[in-house]
Amino acid sequence: MTLVAHDEADIVDAHVRYHLAAGVDLILATDHRSTDGTTEILRRYERDGRLRLFRRDEEEFAQSTWVTEMARLAAREHGADWVINSDADEFWWPRAGTLRDVFDATPPAFGAVRGLWRNFVLRPDSDTPFYERMTVRRDPSHDFDDVYAPHVKVAHRADPDVVVVQGNHDARGERLRLVREWFPFEILHFPIRSRRQLERKYSSAVYRRAVRGRVPRHTEAMEARIGADADAVYSELVVDERSVAEGLRDGRLHRDERLRSALSSKVAANAVPADELQLAQEIDVFLATDAARKVEERTRTLAQRQASLEQSALTHLLQRERRGP
Amino acid sequence: MSVVLSVRAGDDAQLSRLHRAFHLAAGVDELTGPEARPRTGDWLIESEPNEFWWPRSGSLRETLQRVPDGVDVVEAVTRLLVGSDHMYRVREWGAVGRKRISRVGGGDRALRGWYPIEVLVVTGEAVDDRELVGALAAGTIVEDTRLRDALAASERGVAPTFAPPSILDDAQLAGDVAALGDADIVAARRRLDELEERVAAVESLVPLRLERALRTILRRHRR
To answer: What is the pTM of this model?
Structure first.
């Protein structure tokens, strides 16, 4: 597994502990200028031989480059069969069997499989770890720029020449044909976990330096809003007990205590809720935005050109002449 | 809610009998001819006499009952069976397709990427032993005894059971579906390319270009 971390002390220990227990053999981690204790946590696992740590001190947050380097290293130096590219706030949960079972079952003609984000909502701050508090999921937003939009991440066969794209959404390589509509993993996703982490995530300007100034739109919008009124943003995102009860009742929210149970060793990572249809609906939202977005853009342009032609007086004239008197 | 399967009379009387018995046991409430008009709200399966609609878990009725409101179409994946005993499935390119089950009077909305039903198509195509050994070794044909076993059980008066697929089965179906998805994208791109070319050809007509130029000048002038 590859991991890039930047000040993730509140979650990185849970992340590493969970994935090592779930069957990941080795984690290649890049620590980018962390100052909050992340480095020390990662070093502890490095001493146990389950993690190889790289430190990056440059200002630019070159996620795609670093993940690509680590994924290649996994193939070239560590004899990996499969590589999962993860962020610290993502927990890869197989829908059936173990991580290894999914990879073993993947048809040989294919080299990449995807997991779908399942987003957990922010609960009020307290001294308990995030996974004790955040046990409620929400439906994905239909707005692709929302922090809770449906997204996918990719795991791929180890390839010494792989290119992992920004955000770990895709991996390119000769043997890495994607099983397009199969989502054998859920990715339990905890993007916003506390007031402090919310401000740090969007105010540190890490993303501004991400890829030569190309900042994701939702990040830019969130950064501006937090700059203007962080309290308002926190209040909007945090879900209190009453809202949880309402959300559970009307089906917008879903109780999901899997990670909490897994981290307290109460349940194996292959316990899956009977929510096939709920997942199918979330996949549907993603597939609509994923495939449609690219085709939509071309179709919209085409429709504009067509409309412009239809409005043309000359077109009417030519058509009338063609039809005859 | 009823599940209605419409099918024309087949030429093979034995297959037609098995087809009827199988679907009634699999959760179909009523079999009709293609001319029958089912009631609004019923789920309608438009089948061929050699198609066996196989729910991937639970019965057809249970599967369709779970479909959320607002979703009126369920997509199924077709898979071809060869051999006189219907126990081999073809895995070559083009052997897989899609079929739809619709709620009568409903819309056109399906859940993308959700395929809870397979359509096992009995082709009746014989395969000689030598060819079969080679195809099995190459993986272009795989053993799939589900329908054979279900039909044999049905002959003994035992209803078929539809156990949830293993992760291996899931992965194989996903692989087959991926081929379909890739083909869809290629076809959509080709259609768009063609449309773009046609529009560009019209746009490039000199009189139309002149008209556009004049309109632009007039607009500027008005401002």
So the answer is: 0.82
